[in-house]
Structures are given as C-alpha cells and as structure tokens.
Amino acid sequence: MMNLHQLEYLQAVISCGGIRPASYNLHVSPQAVSIAIKKLEEELGTQLFIRSGNELIPTQHGVEVSQRAAIILSQCRELGQLKSELHEGISPDGHFRLYVPQLFGRGSLFEDEAYERFLEAYPDIHLDVWHQTGSSLHAVVEHGITDAALVFGRTQVNGIVFHDVRSVTMYAYWIDERVTHNSVSLNSNFISKHLFANPYCFSEVMTVFRNLPTSDLLAMRFRDISPDIDSHLAFMREGGVIFGLSNSIYKNMPEVSSGMVYLDSQKKAQLPVYFCCKQGNWGKWLQKVYWHSIENLQVLD
C-alpha cells in the first residue's frame, strides 16, 4: 500500500537529480530509495522515470505524481505542526520520540542510567529512543513521526535544523585471534590488507575519511552487508573489518575484537553528533531532551 515514505523518496529523487544524491540527503541506502520507487511504480501501474544508465528522467506521469505528492506532504507538515502546538512538542500519550538512525532498537548511545535519570527529572514524559531500517530522516522529522532525531552527520535538508551535540569516536571491529592491538591506524598497509563495511552511516563515515590521502581512499574496498548481526559476524569471520561506534552491539561478543580508528598516528576518527528537529519547533521539551542528550551521551574513549 502506498505510503508517505514512497512519496518522500519520489520528491527527493526528482529534486536531487538521482537515487544516490537522494539517498545521501535522506540518510538511507540507495537500494532503499530504488526499491521504494519501483514499488510505487508497481502500485500506480505506471512508469515514473526513464532510466538511462545512472540517470533518471521523470516521465509525464512522474511529474504529475510528484506534483500531487508535494501537496500531500505539505498538508502532512501542516497537520504535524498543529499537533506539536497542541501538545507542547510531545505526543498526546506523553511520549517524546527520539529517532536515532544506525542503531539497533534504542541501542546504547546513551549511558544505561540516562533513561532513569530522565524519568526522575521529568516523570510525566517517557523518552522513547528508536530506529527503523530504511526510514528517511526527512520523513520521520518533517511529518511528525518522531519529535526529534540524533544523527551522525549534517546535510542540507529543507525544514530541518541541526544543533551541535558532540563527537563520538569511531571504532573498528574484526574477528582474528592473531590481532591483539586496541587501535587501528588507517595507513596504506592496513587498507590494502582488508575489506571494509559500514552498514549504518556510510556517507558520514566517508566524510570523516576525506582527509586521508587520495590513494588510500581509492584503495579502500567496501562490501554492502545486511544490517542483521549474523551477516556482520559472517563478514568478520571472513577477515572483514566493520566501522561503528564505541558502544556497538558487539561489545558483549568475546570473539569480536575492537579498536579505536585513527586517521594517522595521533588523530582519532570522530563522527559529529547533531540533534535535529523541525524548523520553528524549538519548544521547551525539545530543549530539555537536547540538553539531556549532551549530558548523557556515552563516549567510551
């Protein structure tokens, strides 16, 4: 059944000029955008784009659907703004929903006690931290599916504002009993010997790596792996290295080794964290959750 995500992806592909730039702005994989567009075409029974190599040209039907989609999405934004005003920035059931892409469930981005401290300080509000594979940052924030989001990179997204939180250190994960070091330096020797993967925030990670020598960047080989843990373990058992956060889901798996990632002998690779919300919606509860995020973000350096 047609949904808002599909319409959002359609708008992004047309405005950005292609699937890959659209996926970058939406914080989802190119595959997710491509699948959504194909499914929308199947449901409508018409071709929305003419595909020529890597170029997508909207058909007449594609233009017409996009124009209708713009009206629908605009109306959803207006309804979301009205709902926010009626409930002071939180949902009617007393839950504040914080969307964090690239996490499994609520993850462990925050210290374990952070949720309890928030409940003690604000007993009338329940803080929900969630993630859903394939969800668009723009869609979940702009259309009121979530109240705010924490993301590991800043892009130009209409209608969304970004507030600095802090940076978190990137870690590498692998399975190899012969490797006992607790850090990884991305030098030419290490890069040439390994295959890499980053299943959650590829574009943000590559932005962090942009200061590496061009020859090293070109030599890095990435594999697209599924987000499930079994796929991760299989990849690492084959000798692959996965990039992630210091509080990753692998921390309770003794066979998985980890180490901080260094861009050179001294400079750590760090992902900037931003708190983002709908433009013009900087109410008291958003500010409270923002400051709580800054105070309780877990950094295991």
Radius of gyration: 21 Å
Structure class: alpha/beta
Top CATH class of the largest domain: Alpha Beta
Termini separation comes to 45 Å
**Name of the CATH homologous superfamily of the largest domain:** Periplasmic binding protein-like II
> How would you describe the shape?
globular
> Main beta sheet: strand number and arrangement?
10 strands, mixed
Low-confidence stretches: none
Q: Write the H/E string, N to C.
A: HHHEEHEHEHEEEHEHHEHEEEH
What fold name stands as the CATH topology of the largest domain?
D-Maltodextrin-Binding Protein, domain 2
What is the average of the pLDDT values?
79
Strand content: 15-25%
Q: Treating each run of at least 4 consecutive H or I residues as one helix, how many helices?
A: 11
The overall strand count is: 12
Number of domains: 3
CATH architectural name of the largest domain: 3-Layer(aba) Sandwich
* Fraction of residues in H or I helices: 25-40%
What can you see in these coordinates?
By secondary structure, the protein is α/β, with parallel strands linked by helices. It folds into three domains: 4-80, Winged helix-like DNA-binding domain superfamily/Winged helix DNA-binding domain (Arc Repressor Mutant, subunit A, Orthogonal Bundle); 85-164 and 273-296, 3-Layer(aba) Sandwich (D-Maltodextrin-Binding Protein, domain 2), CATH 3.40.190; 168-271, 3-Layer(aba) Sandwich (D-Maltodextrin-Binding Protein, domain 2). 39% of the residues lie in helices and 22% in strands. The protein is built from eleven helices and twelve strands. The chain has helices spanning 4-16, 19-26, 30-44, 60-86, 114-121, 137-142, 188-193, 202-208, 214-219, 229-237, 284-296, and strands at residues 49-52, 55-58, 95-99, 126-130, 148-151, 160-174, 183-185, 195-197, 221-222, 241-245, 257-262, 270-278. The strands form two sheets. Strands 3, 4, 5, 6, 7, 8, 9, 10, 11 and 12 form a ten-stranded mixed β-sheet that branches. It has a two-stranded antiparallel ribbon with strand order 1-2. Strand 1 (49-52) and strand 2 form a beta hairpin. Helix 1 crosses helix 3 (30-44). The longest helix is centred in the first third of the chain and has 27 residues, at 60-86. The protein is globular. The protein starts with a helix and ends in a 5-residue tail after the last helix. The model has no long low-confidence stretch (mean pLDDT 79).
